[in-house]
Each structure stands twice: as structure tokens, then as C-alpha cells.
Design brief:
Largest sheet: none
Helix content: over 70%
Structural class: mainly alpha
Strand content: under 5%
Number of helices: 18
Shape: globular
Order of helices and strands: HHHHHHHHHHHHHHHHHH
Length: 464
């Protein structure tokens, strides 16, 4: 497939055309990236019985996969910058498909950890970062719409794949189901084929031809290596920890991530323990994904309003508290109808948080510091993401065959998330108070020492 045509207006993205095909490809790859670690929980009970694993051991599968997907963000971003989005998404699809098929032959839990968790997580990381990167090259004015359609792949695939996995499990067992799921994930290769690269337009007299670039690999490699080193430094910018708002955001975010995924992974098992049949339990995840599908764009529109936008950090804190409160109420529900209600509110809270989580970071750090802040956040987030589900599984193991074994899990996750939301609320009040105080002191100093300020301005103008 040839590269996409250049825009005659310069470097401005096309905002349409083949870009919509790219959005379809990103929708598929992002859908598999975010939904796969969640829907694998359908197989947990069968794998646990077959391999003799405990609840805490089985929870490590999705936990490792999520942690590797997030921790691999900086490395995958550099690979995408070096080789482009198309080959990376296709490579990620091959890795995901091969990891599922290979894991189906495993006879030990460690074997599954490596192939599903590590290899599959690396493949998902390539899919996610490459898809987000290429959308920014095809769209500018319509970028929010394009990103929204691509990110909608997560709840859409959660709705579809969760009941499909239950059907496959009943027909083919967990080993055959993993093989079929691996074959389905090869569709990421087709999605990657849609992501043809964008060639930047250039003037005939001032640009170097593609042939000349190919004839000078040493210079190109030197520039690429320098760019990769610079990119790595951007993602490991330790000076961000000097920013008070960033530290508060990171602490609250880590508390949320610690308790965010365990309720999703153990929800089907909890529903079955309450007398719900297996298909209805699997459909609970579909209901959550369906609600999430509409909540994310609605939250974005609400957060962009003139009433919420200046208070978006407090809105984010409210979303976290709302999410955690849903988990605290879940153990009080023991019928299918009430669990459906819990799932609906869980989808609302989960969608609200993830619609705001990166927007709040950009609001705190600004557009210039945002890339390095995202890199640092994703690297640190992988630790609570890695430890959260296994800790919840360990709590279930310690409770043994007690009827409350899953209920303590929801109490733990809900308490941690509510505590994180309340912490962020109080921390934001303190942070904004200190920022106003510092601004007032700076204004006073400028009024008291106008001569020094004038000398600094003159010096700056002379340097320019």
C-alpha cells in the first residue's frame, strides 16, 4: 500500500480522507489492548481448577499483562518513532496472537505468566502507543473526535468479547478458547495495514529525496540514536517531582489504580458465587462496557463546560469517590438485578475517571511538560497495577470458603479508591491555596523592587 498523499497546504494534517480508515484500525487495536486483560477473567476459574492455582496466583495473569502494557509505553513510543506505526501494530498483533496460542499449551502458571503476561503485554503496548501516535498525524481540527472514536474500542470490545469468551469456554475449554482468541487478535495485523505512513510535504529545491536518504544510513542512524536518547530523557524527567501538584496527582492516581482492576477481574466469579449463572455473570462485563461507551464522551463534554472546566481537578476527585463508593456498596447486593445496578454505576464511575485521568494531568502540567509527565506516570502506575489484583486474590485465599471472601475484596478496593479521591480533594485545596499565596508574594516583590525587575527584563532583551 503506498504512502498517503501529501497535503498541498504544508504540514497540516488532512483531517479526513484515509484518516478515517486509520481510526478504524486504531479502534480495533486499542479495543484489544484495553479489553483483553479484563475479559481473560472469564477463563480464570477453569485455569485455576486445571492447574491447581490459588486466587492470588491466577490474578497475576491480567496484572502482569496490564503492568507490562503500561511499563512498555516509553520503549514502544521510541520504536514507533523509529519504525513507524504500521509495522509496530502488525508486530504487536503477531505477538498477541502468538502469546495466546502458545499459552494454551502451558501446564504451569509461570508458563502462562510469561506468554500471556509478558509477551502479550508487550504486544498490547505496541498496539496502544502506535495507534495513538498515528491519529495525531492524520488529524488536527477533528482530533478529539478521532481520538474518541478510537478509544471507544475499549468498551465496544469489552461488550463483545466477554460473552464470546464464555461461549468459547463452554464449547472448547480454556485451551481451545485461548487459541481462537489468539487467532482473533491477529486482526490487529489487518488494523496495522490500514495505518499507512504520512509523508511530510517538501519543496523540490529544499528537500532531500527518499533515495538520497536511503543512501546515507550512517547519518540517519546517528540522528535516530540521538533522538531516542532525547526521548528517553523526556520520559524519565525526575525534576517533575519538584512540582507539588504532580506529586499529589501521582499519589491519588496510584491509589485508584491499585483498586481499579480487581473488581473487574473478580466480578464474574463473585456473581457466580451469589447464584448467578455463568452467561449472566459474563454479561455483567458487557453491561459495564456498554455504559462506559457512552459515559466517556459525555464526561468529556461536561468537563469542557465553563462550569466544570475551572474545577476539573475537583470533578476528578468526585469521580474517584463515586467509583470507590460503588465498590463499598457491592457486597451488600446479592441478587442478579442488584448486581446489574452495581455494574451500571460501576461503568459510570469507571468511565468518568478514565475520561478525566489524562486531561487532569495536562491541566496541571501544561502541554509542554505533558509528554514527560505521562511517561513518568505510566512507568510508576505499573507497580500498583501489578500488585492490586494479586493482593485482592490473596485476600480471597485467606478467607478460604467463607461466603464473605469476595466481599472483603470489594471493601478493600473501595476503601483505597475513596481514600485516594478524598486525598486528592484535600490536596488540591491546599495546592491551589499555596499557588495563590505564592502568586501574591511574587506580585508584592515585583511592586517593592521595580528596578531589579526592570534590569532582569533588560538583560533578557539583550540576550534575545
Amino acid at each position: 500500500m503506498p504512502p498517503s498523499p501529501s497535503d498541498s497546504l504544508g504540514n497540516k494534517p488532512l483531517d479526513g480522507g484515509w484518516g478515517w480508515m486509520v481510526v478504524i484500525g486504531a479502534h480495533i487495536s486499542i479495543g484489544f489492548a484495553y479489553s483483553t486483560p479484563k475479559v481473560l477473567s472469564i477463563f480464570f476459574k477453569a485455569i485455576q481448577e486445571d492447574l491447581g492455582a490459588s486466587y492470588s496466583e491466577i490474578a497475576w495473569i491480567s496484572s502482569i499483562m496490564l503492568a507490562v502494557m503500561y511499563a512498555g509505553g516509553p520503549a514502544s513510543s521510541m520504536l514507533v518513532k523509529r519504525f513507524g506505526s504500521r509495522p509496530m501494530v502488525m508486530l504487536g498483533g503477531l505477538m498477541c496472537g502468538a502469546s495466546m496460542v502458545t499459552a494454551s499449551f502451558g501446564n504451569s502458571i509461570v508458563y502462562i505468566y510469561f506468554f500471556i503476561g509478558v509477551v502479550g503485554g508487550c504486544g498490547l503496548s505496541l498496539n496502544l502507543n502506535a495507534s495513538l501516535t498515528i491519529i495525531s498525524k492524520y488529524f488536527l481540527a477533528r482530533r478529539p473526535l478521532a481520538n474518541g472514536l478510537a478509544m471507544a474500542g475499549s468498551p465496544v470490545f469489552l461488550c463483545l468479547v466477554a460473552p464470546l469468551n464464555q461461549y468459547l469456554l463452554d464449547r472448547f475449554g480454556w485451551r481451545g478458547s485461548l487459541q481462537i482468541l489468539g487467532a482473533l487478535m491477529l486482526n490487529c495485523c489487518v488494523a496495522g495495514a490500514l495505518m499507512r505512513p504520512v509523508l511530510l510535504p517538501c519543496k523540490p529545491n529544499s528537500c532531500v529525496s527518499q533515495k538520497m536518504l536511503e543512501e546515507e544510513p550512517n547519518k540517519c542512524n546517528t540522528k535516530v540514536q540521538g533522538g531516542c536518547m532525547k526521548e528517553a530523557k523526556n520520559f524519565l524527567n525526575l525534576s517533575l517531582f519538584k512540582d507539588r501538584g504532580f506529586v499529589f496527582y501521582l499519589i491519588g492516581n496510584m491509589m485508584f489504580i491499585f483498586g481499579a482492576y480487581a473488581p473487574i477481574l473478580f466480578l464474574p466469579a463473585y456473581a457466580i458465587s451469589q447464584g448467578v449463572d455463568e452467561y449472566s455473570a459474563a454479561y455483567l462485563l458487557s453491561i459495564m462496557g456498554f455504559v462506559d461507551m457512552f459515559v466517556r464522551p459525555a464526561t468529556g463534554l461536561l468537563a469542557n463546560s465553563k462550569w466544570i472546566r475551572p474545577r476539573i481537578q475537583y470533578f476528578f476527585s468526585f469521580a474517584m469517590v463515586f467509583n470507590g463508593t460503588c465498590h463499598l456498596l457491592c457486597p451488600l447486593l446479592n441478587s442478579h438485578a442488584f448486581l446489574i445496578g452495581y455494574t451500571v454505576f460501576f461503568g459510570i464511575g469507571f468511565g468518568m475517571v478514565f475520561a478525566l485521568i489524562f486531561e487532569c494531568l495536562m491541566d496541571l502540567m501544561g502541554s509542554q511538560c505533558f509528554p514527560s509527565a505521562v511517561g513518568m506516570v505510566t512507568i510508576i502506575e505499573c507497580f500498583p497495577m501489578l500488585l492490586g489484583p494479586p493482593t485482592a486474590g490473596l485476600l480471597v485465599d485467606l478467607c478460604g470458603d467463607s461466603e464473605y471472601k469476595y466481599k472483603y475484596l470489594f471493601f478493600m478496593c473501595g476503601s483505597v479508591i475513596v481514600a485516594g479521591g478524598l486525598f486528592l480533594f484535600v490536596a488540591n485545596i491546599y495546592n491551589y491555596h499555596m499557588l495563590d499565596k505564592e502568586k501574591t508574594e511574587n506580585d508584592r516583590e515585583q511592586k517593592e523592587n521595580p528596578s531589579e525587575n526592570q534590569e532582569q527584563v533588560s538583560l533578557s532583551e539583550a540576550q534575545i
